[in-house]
Amino acid sequence: MLARLRENLSFKLLALVAAIMLHMYVASQQNPSQTKTVTVPIAVKDLPPGLIPGKPGPVMVNLTGTSDELAKVADMNVVATVDLKHAHIGQNTGLPVDVELTPSSLNSSIGHSDFKPRSLVINIEERRRRKLPVTVEVSGASAPGFVTKRPSLLVPSTATATGPANDVDSIARLVVKPDITGATDTVDDDYQIVPVDSQGNDVANVQIIPETAHVQIGVVETGRTKEVFITPKITGTPAAGFEVGTVTVKPETVMLSGSLDQLTGVANVLTEPIDITGASAVVTKQVTCLPPAGITLSPGQTATVTIQIVSAAPVSPPAPTQPAIPVPVGQ
Questions:
Q1: Euclidean distance between CA atoms 212 and 136, whole angstroms
Q2: At residue 162, does pLDDT exceed 70?
Q3: Which one is predicted more confidently, 152 or 142?
Q4: Domain span at residue 261?
Q5: 117: buried, middle or exposed (CB in 10 Å: 19+, 13-18, 0-12)?
């Protein structure tokens, strides 16, 4: 048996090698080697704490393999990194880029030796944090017939900016920018907090925590107005022998704003009380006008009220009555 196997062994081995090579040739003709180019981002690793790197550009990687094998490779299977464990503040040059395929089993059938760039120049900055107040910059205009009040609620009133030192230092203020174009009711919502420089331009590469602030802006109807008289509210009584004479008010009227239903029943506006108890001379006082609930007027609207206190007129005794003269009947 062994003797038969040894017969022409060299020819048999040669035939086997030829068969394998023929199979590989046929397979290569049916599925020839191809090239696929992918562009992937470069991730940084081992960055020392307290530093922020400039964002590196992408890397272009040429993958080689059969079409069947390349079809199995997605961009996420190509990982490009740059090691920054020895990085320092300032410009770092000649940082090598490393490219690998994941999972590692792809390395046996896919080649990736050709990629660009192979090294990077990255600028490293110090990480900085600043706590800044948040302000509101309203844009747009409410609908015709409506007026916008000043923002009455801003939560939070401060936020923290974190990022590269140069960018964080360039921040002049943090703003929220609610747009109230066409608003007919109170604006009550959350808005993005945006860092801006002294020229009003947005500052990039900075993280804001928290990201939003809650703003409330009153929008009230002003298309309905009504002018009414100011009526002084006088309390107390003058001194004995005196009485209230002429009362003057300057200004005499005030302009109210509100809805049609609210204004319909309003004929006048009272002032705060004016006490004339025991007065025997002119009383002049500046008082605040008090609008009805739901009605608005200019903040702090006041009027000057002058009350003349005059001597009371003496009471005259009744005039005597004449006795009736009888009239004869029948004459």
A1: 12
A2: yes
A3: 142
A4: 225-311
A5: middle
